[in-house]
Write a structure and sequence with these properties.
Structural class: alpha/beta
EC number: 3.1.1.29
Function: Hydrolyzes ribosome-free peptidyl-tRNAs (with 1 or more amino acids incorporated), which drop off the ribosome during protein synthesis, or as a result of ribosome stalling.
CATH class: Alpha Beta
Number of helices: 5
Subcellular location: Cytoplasm
Radius of gyration: 15 Å
CATH superfamily: Peptidyl-tRNA hydrolase
Binding site for tRNA: 14, 62, 64
Order of helices and strands: EHEEEHEEHEHH
CATH architecture: 3-Layer(aba) Sandwich
Number of domains: 1
InterPro entries: Pept_tRNA_hydro, Pept_tRNA_hydro_CS, Pept_tRNA_hydro_sf
Number of strands: 7
Largest sheet: 7 strands, mixed
Shape: globular
Length: 172
């Protein structure tokens, strides 16, 4: 069983924020698969079943409580650590950088920290999508809750490249 989770914040207020990169990547993957949304109140998520062995997940908790929804999905579907991939924004990577890694700390990302705390482990796959740091004086928390200021074509290209990384992982 493989579960790819895109981290983000639910609701229209946050729909285009940098912090919702995980949701953007899930949406991009869905352009290549036929999978309608299934809302699960029990799992606090929207689920997209690509087939019996591959699921895309958008937690409907807010970012800083993502671990609760991820933990519920992992336990419900009996996902092994290597079968979980979490996609999220990362200010420590320059805009446009993407890194696929296994077993790393949160590096201060509150959503990832929530997942690590809920699972009791950092032993899972991550796709870190670089959103960069601001060149103006602004708190990181405010920066990630703003919409992208970069060219929309460059943002779309970043999302497409990150989705390719996830799709390749799902095919392994």
């Amino acid at each position: 069983m493989k579960v790819a989770v895109g981290l983000g914040n639910p609701g229209q207020t946050y729909a285009k924020n940098r912090h919702n990169v995980g949701f953007f990547v899930i949406d991009e993957i869905l352009k290549q698969y036929v999978a309608g949304p299934q809302v699960s109140k029990k799992l606090q998520s929207i689920l997209y079943f690509l087939d019996k062995k591959r699921i895309l997940v958008k937690p409907q908790t807010f970012m800083n409580a993502s671990g609760k929804a991820v933990n519920r999905a992992v336990n419900y579907y009996k996902v092994k650590p290597e079968g979980l991939l979490v996609v999220h924004d990362d200010v420590d990577l320059e805009f446009g950088e993407i890194k696929h890694q296994f077993g790393r700390g949160s590096a201060g990302h509150k959503g990832v920290e929530s997942v690590i705390d809920a699972l009791g482990s950092d032993q899972f796959n991550r796709v870190r999508v670089g959103i960069g740091r601001p060149n103006i004086p602004i708190e990181t928390e405010d920066w990630v809750l703003q919409n992208f200021s970069e060219d929309s074509h460059k943002v779309q290209e970043l999302i497409e490249r990150a989705s390719e990384v996830v799709i390749n992982w799902l095919k392994e």
